């Protein structure tokens, strides 16, 4: 059983900045059935340009025969604010002007994305999440939501993510926005504005998602006499064009800024103090050669979230490994959840 739907929030949604959005819509998908105890919820938070169809983009970890399957679990994935897969975004109509927002869309933060998840959870009648999981930008959302304590999270799984977005990560995002801004059509207020810039931005981003070894393995030339038309060049162009067919430059612009805003220490005593507020059983997974979210960032999370477990994955693809290495993730997460369940049973016996 799967459902694709849109929830229209009837009230004003107040952003962390203090600005408010009217008529916010949240596109989401659910799979499976919520049980009588409402304790079988698996909530997946998606990354930068993904959508709410988690069984598609995280296939192998989610699916009918996967660890997280709709036969046992009630799986929820919501499209995030600013994305163009059904949730309110810069191309949505501003009810005040009757025109799309474009660059008048208010900036938002990772906390705002978590706040939107909570609105949907309330709508669905969910007050407890068995497993809250996210990778990259999705992990940032999951972490902020667990710190907010607006819902009970039993198990938190953070993959290839961090507590605060790094200067290195911000520099990558700014470079992508600079590429977008060189495309004059970005300021023309039209749905396809900035697409040439978006293509260049995606090319830049891909270099942070992959590794030297990955390109050497997949894009190396088989002959020595070429002086042009290189495989690596074609690949960058292809990936840029591929994104332009399914995304827009305005959503990309705002979502990259939201990622830059990520800092769990904002408004808190410190980043460490904020991480200490996480109460869920936590598993942090890093990728050994991730250059965008270096493994040191995941180790930092595990060191400062109380009793968190840490595990690492070796993957030639770097950051994108969190989407690719689903067999390894299944093994690590499956063992963690079994241990967590065993501890819960022991604790119940001790208190009985």
From TrEMBL:
Main location: cytoplasm
Catalytic activity: L-homoserine + acetyl-CoA = O-acetyl-L-homoserine + CoA
Subcellular localization(s) per the UniProt record: Cytoplasm
Gene3D superfamilies according to UniProt: alpha/beta hydrolase
Enzyme Commission number, as recorded: 2.3.1.31
Protein's pathway: Amino-acid biosynthesis; L-methionine biosynthesis via de novo pathway; O-acetyl-L-homoserine from L-homoserine: step 1/1
GO molecular function terms attached to this record: homoserine O-acetyltransferase activity
Main enzyme class: transferase
Residues annotated as binding substrate: 202, 320
Superkingdom as given in the UniProt entry: Bacteria
Active-site feature positions: 136 (nucleophile), 290, 319
Record key words, sorted: Acyltransferase, Amino-acid biosynthesis, Cytoplasm, Methionine biosynthesis, Transferase
Domain AB hydrolase-1: 45-321
Pfam hit, one: Abhydrolase_1
Protein function: Transfers an acetyl group from acetyl-CoA to L-homoserine, forming acetyl-L-homoserine.
NCBIfam families documented for this protein: homoserO_Ac_trn
PANTHER family the record matches: HOMOSERINE O-ACETYLTRANSFERASE
Family per record: Belongs to the AB hydrolase superfamily. MetX family.
Oligomer and partners: Homodimer.
Protein name: Homoserine O-acetyltransferase
Source species of the chain: Pedobacter albus
Organism phylogeny: Bacteria, Pseudomonadati, Bacteroidota, Sphingobacteriia, Sphingobacteriales
